[in-house]
Design a protein that fits this description.
seven-stranded mixed beta sheet, alpha/beta, two-stranded antiparallel sheet, Rossmann fold, Helicase, Ruva Protein, domain 3, elongated
Length: 285
């Protein structure tokens, strides 16, 4: 398939919408909404994303969904090594040819959710910088908290609704599993809200750049992440119930565990901060 990829004398300027459209026409490529293929075309937003990543020449970076390579190109100019994971069968050959002379790039043609995450992040201190496909963003971020070396810094463009859930505080509508699982491990902030016009084609949803900085230790102490997810799913599927009533479906007598964890039996799941859940998990077991 790589032999069918059109060759181009000079790489296009992918922050110019006209050149992006011309390239897509040349490649006979139609972006897939299903895959969340909305390509960043705004130079200012690209620079904000890069500045938030605080890249150094010795950084090892992972990019998910490089698309046409606008961020890939910029990352290669600032970081020491880049691993890019591209699912699309049409874009991967294009990227391989475009960056054939870039020894710092390792291109993986795969769905990132099928990848070996510990192998993608084999050592501490690595970074994830990406314009994430929106359909997988939340799941991917949660999965990365459970590996031995989660990214030290994550800077990503994501759907604004997901960004709000990442930062949500207890007792708010957006607060839930994603808030707790990510806030345990990361200090999270929104760097910039992004207009749909900054992408081609423009997405039907609003977007944001989120920045996640790995904590020295997870809030609430270490925990079995899979067991914690199960507990959270159970509790938030019954979010209107008090914890005492909700936990009766898990253990016959939940009151001693709640007392040991310092949680009032009348509290509800949405009221408990991230640091409250690991002690409760330990008390239940």
């Amino acid at each position: 398939m790589a032999n069918d990829t059109p060759k181009m004398a000079n790489p296009p300027n992918l922050t110019r919408p006209s050149e992006v459209r011309a390239l897509l026409t040349q490649l006979d490529f139609h972006p897939s909404r299903l895959l969340g293929q909305n390509f960043l075309i705004d130079r200012n937003i690209l620079n904000i994303l890069l500045d938030a990543a605080e890249l150094r020449p010795d950084d090892a970076v992972v990019e998910v969904g490089p698309g046409l390579g606008v961020l890939t190109d910029a990352l290669l100019s600032r970081a020491g090594a880049l691993t890019a994971v591209e699912k699309d069968n049409r874009l991967a050959p294009y990227l391989r040819e475009r960056f054939a002379d870039s020894p710092k790039l390792t291109l993986i043609h795969s769905d990132v959710l099928d990848c070996d995450f510990p192998a993608l992040f084999p050592r501490p201190g690595m970074k994830l910088v990406a314009n994430l496909p929106y359909a997988i963003a939340a799941r991917l971020l949660v999965e990365l908290t459970a590996i031995p070396n989660p990214p030290a810094l994550i800077v990503v463009t994501i759907q604004r609704e997901v960004a709000a859930r990442l930062e949500a505080k207890p007792s708010t509508d957006d607060y839930g599993l994603l808030s707790i699982l990510m806030q345990r491990h990361y200090a999270i902030s929104t760097v910039k809200h992004i207009s749909p016009s900054c992408f081609w084609p423009p997405p039907e949803v609003q977007s944001s750049i989120s920045k996640l900085v790995l904590r020295a230790a997870p809030l609430g102490g270490p925990a079995n992440e899979l067991a914690l997810r199960d507990l959270l799913r159970h509790a938030f599927s019954r979010r209107r119930k008090t914890m005492a009533r909700s936990l009766r479906d898990l253990v016959p007598a939940p009151l001693p565990a709640l007392e040991k964890a310092g949680i009032p039996p009348t509290a509800r799941a949405e009221e408990l901060p991230p640091e409250a859940w690991p002690p409760l998990l330990r008390a239940l077991h």
